[in-house]
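thread: overnight batch results

M.L. [08:02]
morning all. the overnight job finished for the chain we discussed friday. pasting input first so we're all looking at the same thing
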Amino acid sequence: MARRKRTGSMAKRLPQPLDLSATPACRHFGVCGGCTWQQSPIAAQRAAKAEGVAALLREKGLPDVIHAVHDAGLWRTRNRMEFSFGFKRWILAGEPEGVDRSFALGLHPQRRFDRVFDLEECPVAFEEAEQLVRATRRLARGLGLSTWNPVEHRGLLRQLLVRKGLATGEVLLEIVSDGSADAAVEALAEALLREPSPPTTLSHARHAGFADMTPPNAPRTALHGPGFIHEIVNDVRFRLQPGSFFQPSSRAAAILAELVVQGVRSRDARVVEDWCCGTGFFSLQLARAGVPSVRGIEINAAAIEDARANAMLNNLSAEFLVVDIAEHAASGATAADCIVVDPPRAGLPAAALAALVRAPAARIIFLACDLAASAAQLSALVAGGRQLVRTELVDQFPHTPHVEAVLTLDRNL
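M.L. [08:03]
and the structure it wrote out:
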């Protein structure tokens, strides 16, 4: 089977599905940079993902058995989407010559991060997302608002974040601006709230930096509602603010939680640490499952504040610490039977990885959203005396070459 050039990204290492018999469901297929595997039936997509992960594990000298590729749904699965405003609109096929291209709100075309096309539909997002994008674009243009120019580093509107609690029906919308004209953003917000289906809460974030992504701790003002929404996964309720990390698919989140809980309980672990715990997602799922002692470790103080609030919201007992992982391990406080690790895409920092290698825990459950980036870290754990005993994949991003891996490593006896 033909393979892409091998690079550090898992998405670029996977074999392309050869079966191209499916009809793309989205009108923007071929232009949009996302969901590029829509022409392949889902079975072919998942076979390619399993093959690619198995090949990478073999390359690292690890067992290549994939126990399952779990189905997290095909369409309307995304509970969070971030859209871009553009100062130069990508002209779509069939549009007449001379049309205005000075304003856009949507997504980037393939390999063109300097352009944005006007999005009309997105079948992987929740339905209200499409309505909110169309309404925001219409109203912002009507108000004559400018959009961000990354070359000249100016322009008011930068991103539009939409988020939904699929179990609660609550919808969050956040307008990201450069912070230069709050009154103009407030006028746009007021107009959006007069639309037939306004969001539950509406927030304004200010971001004038060079980076495209809005920092989680960007200054924010709630213009309507409490500034957060709720989602429920496996009977645990979570408060989600605009900058809170949460799995982008609630169904995938439920599957990941079940796999982690099963992995902990099958080892009969009684003391569990959740490294990179964020807002407490896995910690609280474990507490709900009856694990006697759960401790979440996270360096982001705002995330820990959310985690503690979520624990109180659910009347669950879990301890949350704001501390660097390596410092926590060096203090001698790590005495867990099992450690759950859900690191950033690039994996753990070197000091944290060294601490994990030395940790006495009998079991490590390692989650990887980009296995190629984490493969060397898995090899280090194996070299440090652990054995990879189980690999599960969760197809959180169907129609793309991305896949989530849950890897269980036990200490050699």
